[in-house]
Amino acid sequence: MAQTSETQTRSMLLNVGPSHPAMHGVIEIQVELDGEIIRQADVEIGYLHRGFEKECESATYTQCFPYTDRLNYVSPLINNFAFAEAVEKLMGLKVPERCEYIRVIMSEISRLCDHLTCVGASAMELGAFSVFLYMIKAREWLWELVENVTGARLTISYARIGGVKGDLPEDFVPTCREVLSKTRGVIREVDQLLTRNRIFYDRTRGIGCISAEQALNWGITGPFLRSSGVDYDVRKAFPYSIYDRFEFDIPIGERGDNYDRYLVRMEEMEQSIRIVEQALDQLPEGPTNVDHEGEVIEPALMADLGKFGQTRGLLVNEALIEPTLEGSQRRYHERVNADSPDDWLPPKEQVYSSIEALMNHFKIIMQGHGVRPPKGEVYHFVEGANGELGFYVVSDGTDRPWRVRCHPPCFPIMAALPTIIRGEQLADLIPTFGSVNMIAGELDR
Amino acid sequence: MAESKVLQRVRERFGAAIIDTHSALGQDTVIVSKSAIVELARFLKEDPELQFNVLLDLTAVDHWKRKPRFEVVYHLLSLANRSRLRVKAPVGGADPELETLSALWPNANWYEREVWDMFGIRFKGHPDLRRLLLYPEFEGHPLRKDYPVDKRQPRIGPQD
Predict the structure, then answer these.
(1) What pTM was estimated for this model as a whole?
(2) Which candidate, A14, A55, A78, places its Cα nearest to that of A380?
């Protein structure tokens, strides 16, 4: 066959994903390549759509919590609290001080987990595998803390309307301080490995740039926006919960590229540690309103006695609940839950021993009763690990939300991704996509 | 309660097109007739005093059996003034339709695709109104209240 001297060029369409090792979650990016340069890109999402918003409409407010866990599988606590706070805002509930502190502490720990995962995974994709292992090691310590408090690592369902499931375990404060100082060590180690690393620098500096104006136009928030030099952080701009009580800085970048996003995330982890440390210092004890004359008995025995009507003396007993639910005994219940018995489940001890608590329990659990916010709508927003996380809840006055809308922080970033990666090399897609920290659970709902 | 400055200013400018305003739970809300939505959005974005430069969220609510049936809800943020505004535009009819905002804010593109996907509200002038989360062969719009929550659709998997 005779060879022609002219080479024909044509672009190639390449599917990256939906199941690809470098795609964190199921997502498809179709790129049109000219050699190695991306000419066009299209992002296809929805592979993880589970109908969260539809599902919430047929569940009671309390039943929505497990769904919110599954929105963000790296920092589920923030989603949990955000939804709880949205409903509380609608109802005008005020949670106790101690609960506010617990929420802040747990949120910041989640933010740490999220940033550790994001930086670790991005570094791994650029070849720094040990960084990934170091960071996952630190995340493991933090998740153990989360497990001690909530009883689960991921599917935590820890928030309640008007409070949290249980108080912190007894040894939480010293353990947490120790874990934080160890985590700080890991962050410093990673900083030494990556920040001045030639390969890492060359692969991330000047790649995936977005200007402040562009980022705002796309509605991008969080570290992605801050890397381009806008100091917008919900915790400072619209302080919710008790964030106005802590001293912390908002790191911002200059160029809005992947390297700046890495630096912003690294510094934010330090700031989160600062917030948690201050919160641990200020953590109020709060009243523990229970008399301790009774004995500590097995919960099963307590339930049996209650069922047979042998409630004499049960009210002063305390159920022994082990071990992950430490902090959910009656002794702790009141100091982490709002003072409105109509909205939170009474502690089990009271349910089995007093008619009032039993009625409250019944009314909250039974269909057609439950927590009933007044008619209205609310948009509550918090600073999630990736940006502003919002819940728009519309209530029609019944026990089920009329509409729950979750505004996922990575949604606008993914919408902007084709514009960001256009004109760059295919290999640079990976660090840019990594710095988005896309959470498919949230994106697809 | 006195109307906030933002609401006053919007009302002055768009008197007749504004259906209602309220500030329930401290969140300013404007309900505007759908014909004025683009004009209002442009005004809010470009007015030197208000500067609502970020479109944070765009969604819809199906008020079944109410007329008009749907409400498209916009959440705006003014970074300069650190203030927020909710804009709602009721749309109804058998084939609900609304002007697109994707020329003003590029991220409206995806949000509107999602609203089309979930509620079947059409955005006039949208450059690429495809389904976003669901697959093209999906029938119906699942976040409508008359779509049963347990309805199953068989066509999953790749098509030719």
Answers:
(1) 0.84
(2) A78
